[in-house]
Design goal:
CATH superfamily of the largest domain: Periplasmic binding protein-like II
Number of domains: 2
Order of helices and strands: EEHEHEHEEHHEHHEHEHEHEHE
CATH architecture of the largest domain: 3-Layer(aba) Sandwich
Structural class: alpha/beta
Helix content: 25-40%
Radius of gyration: 19 Å
Distance between the termini: 8 Å
Shape: globular
């Protein structure tokens, strides 16, 4: 089992440095989560400048990342859904968390700006179940008195690929809506009752940008990059925090990593007044045996990570630094 010594959880820690491989390896190859891609892309250029090494990462979705690390075609797979301890043991893998960020509902509704529209988790799930079909439905209107809502059909957008973002979204729905739990459940790919599918966070963002009166879900950085209005979600404490590094950190603060076997922990619907309710983690999954593929050489506590310039460019997220986990 991995040694669970969490050194710190902080903004701007060395994510790319944490994936550094043995000195004989010039490049790092990885694939998987689109959730983590904005962070990796911001750091990779700075890492190359510091070390001369390259990070080649394919943003193909968590399912694809798991498939590629199992096929030993990459140095690491990145997934927003952790592998269970038995699967890790059977495959000779280790995993550890890299990044914590937030999944947000994004909308394309004329006249509604970021943070103006409010949902409960139950109502959001009812939209994705097809039970709430219009923007001015009473279930939405009651949560948003005074907000002008159109009498138009809601165009639902979801992921079409195997997705860790979908896993966390549906895991959250399963915790807050019994109908969703019994009829659909959670998973990287589910039988969506309604809607159209986009590939990756990029595909969902593109659909919501183009389709009038639509709603989708993406990692927060994609909402910012695409200038998509986001809605607020009531958290477990009954509050409506804004998505931010602070609210993601508040959710992460309740996570007991040292008690989770092989870091298997899901933090959706976390307690706390400031906690963002759909906070998710991206894990790096690698072979433990260096002879199989390049295993990670993690930074020492003194590692500085990316430059201050790179850190200023990062999207709101939290990154972890660990001692060597195996």
């Amino acid at each position: 089992m991995l040694t669970k010594t969490l050194l710190s959880a902080c903004l701007g820690a060395g994510l790319v440095a944490a994936l550094a491989v043995s000195a004989s390896a010039a490049d790092i190859t990885g694939a998987g989560s689109t959730f983590v891609y904005p962070v990796l892309s911001k750091w990779s250029a700075d890492y190359n400048k510091q070390t001369g090494d390259k990070l080649n990462y394919q943003s193909i979705g968590s399912g694809g990342g798991i498939a590629q690390i199992k096929a030993a075609t990459v140095d690491f797979g990145a997934s927003d859904k952790p592998l269970e301890p038995k699967e890790l043991s059977d495959g000779g893998f280790g995993q550890f968390p890299l990044v914590v960020g937030g999944i947000v509902p994004v909308i394309n509704v004329k006249g509604i700006k970021s943070g103006e529209l409010k949902f409960t988790g139950k109502v959001l799930a009812d939209i994705y179940l097809g039970n709430v079909t219009k923007w001015n439905d009473k279930a939405i209107a009651d949560l948003n008195p005074g907000l002008k809502l159109p009498d138009s059909q809601i165009a639902v957008v979801h992921r079409s690929d195997g997705s860790g973002t979908s896993f966390n979204w549906t895991n959250y729905f399963s915790k807050v809506n019994e109908d969703w739990k019994s009829k659909v459940g959670e998973g990287t790919a589910v039988n969506w009752p309604v809607g159209i599918g986009g590939k990756g966070n990029e595909g969902v963002a593109a659909y919501v940008t183009r389709v009038k009166d639509s709603i989708g879900y993406v990692e927060y950085a994609y909402a910012l990059q695409n200038k998509l209005p986001y809605a607020l979600i009531q958290n477990a404490a009954g509050q409506y925090p804004k998505p931010s590094a602070e609210s993601f950190s508040a959710a992460a603060a309740s996570a007991e990593w040292t008690k989770a076997q092989d870091f298997y922990l899901i933090m959706t619907n976390a307690p706390g007044e400031k906690a963002w309710p759909v906070t998710a983690t991206t894990w790096a999954i690698m072979y433990k045996d260096r002879r199989t593929r390049h295993a990670p050489r993690l930074p020492s506590p003194s590692s500085s990570g990316p430059s201050k310039t790179a850190r200023r460019k990062l999207p709101p997220s939290i990154t972890f630094r660990f001692r060597r986990p195996w």
